[in-house]
Design goal:
SGNH_hydro_sf; globular; alpha/beta; signal; 5 strands; GDSL_lipolytic_enzyme; GDSL
């Protein structure tokens, strides 16, 4: 442990020195995935899965509801700051002018999407395969601005973050009798792994060399999951957490074999399961007072359009809550998680 903290301290010194010079540690940050990292790509889609209205964003700069499923910053916003960026990767679909805005990266994530394309199709959002098409388009725009060789070095030096899988289970598999009867959770996670593997290979083929992938969270501890699947109990749903742990093991194994087969690839799994589980099961040790109920509304179920400015019971101080809505961590929890991401992701930068 001492060795790990020594590495972290020396790394943070490098960060401080670089950031003091106004230089981010990597040329760009590209983000793919679901609602945990979506910063507004769903705002103009014909979907119910969006967050561009109060009280979302009430603790964000200018109190603006950008489309983030949070009261403030996402873990990836903190990651961008930790890497030395002075702005966050913009929501690709929201950019009116896509030119120079893309020099430091972009965010392609879409709430309710996943590795499994039909999940996004259920909610009329953007599946990962389509996010990849947007990424290709953004690369062509970059080439137009800085030329082929500069664009290639931005892409190969950039960090690519991927957060998916949660919606595939919670917003599709568990509530979709067609899938649930057809596949065991184990079989469904095998299907997701095939899609994951293809996605990483496609990203690699487009020049990505530094990729960080988050694990599934403890799905059974999300307030809405306890309400929906907890059979009246107030505890984390063991079955869902077991599915997440099994998925995460497969994610590690699959990623190791991808790392071996794709030369020059740095593929790092960023564990959010354990840090979030610790926040939920030991809130007071981490400075939180409430881990079962979310801040918005009753805190037991609401997310997206159900979490709105009319929601009765919304808490005054979200920083005491681990969860902002029924599915998503609060800004305060995201800050803790981003520290864990940074520590886990050091090898992507070095």
């Amino acid at each position: 442990m001492a060795h790990a903290s020594y590495i972290l301290i020396s790394f943070l010194l490098v960060v401080v020195l670089n950031v003091a010079k106004g230089q981010p540690l990597v040329p760009a940050l590209f983000i793919f995935g679901d609602s945990v990292v979506d910063v507004g790509n769903n705002n103009d889609l014909l979907t119910i899965v969006k967050a561009n209205f109060p009280p979302y964003g009430r603790d964000f700069s200018n109190h603006s509801s950008t489309g983030r499923f949070c009261n403030g910053k996402l873990a990836t916003d903190y990651t961008a700051e930790n890497l030395g960026f002075t702005s966050y990767p913009p929501a690709y679909l929201n950019l009116n002018v896509k030119g120079r805005n893309l020099l430091n990266g972009a965010n392609f994530a879409s709430a309710a999407s996943g590795y499994y394309d039909p999940t996004a199709q259920l909610y009329h959002t953007i599946p990962l395969s389509q996010q990849l098409e947007h990424y290709k388009e953004s690369q062509n725009i970059l080439v137009g601005i800085v030329g082929q060789s500069n664009a290639s070095s931005i892409v190969s030096g950039a960090i690519h973050l991927v957060s998916a899988g949660n919606s595939d289970f919670i917003q599709n598999y568990y509530i979709n009798p067609l899938l649930y009867k057809l596949y065991s959770a184990d079989q469904f996670s095998d299907i997701l792994m095939q899609h994951y593997s293809t996605f990483i290979q496609n990203l690699y083929a487009l020049g990505a060399r530094r990729i960080g992938v988050t694990t599934l969270p403890p799905m059974g501890c999300l307030p809405a999951a306890i309400t929906l699947f907890g059979s009246g109990s107030n505890e984390c749903v063991v079955r869902l957490n077991t599915d997440a742990v099994n998925f995460n093991k497969k994610l590690n194994t699959t990623s190791q074999s991808l790392q071996k087969s794709l030369s020059g690839l740095k593929l790092v799994i960023l564990d959010i399961y354990q840090p979030l589980y610790d926040l939920v099961t030991k809130p007071s040790e981490n400075g939180f007072s409430e881990a079962r109920k979310a801040c918005c509304g009753t805190g037991l179920l609401e997310t997206s359009i159900l979490c709105n400015k009319e929601s009765i019971g919304t808490c005054a101080n979200a920083s005491e809550y681990v969860f902002w809505d029924g599915f998503h961590p609060s800004e305060a929890a995201n800050k803790v998680l981003s520290g864990e991401l940074l520590a886990a992701g050091i090898s992507l930068i070095s």
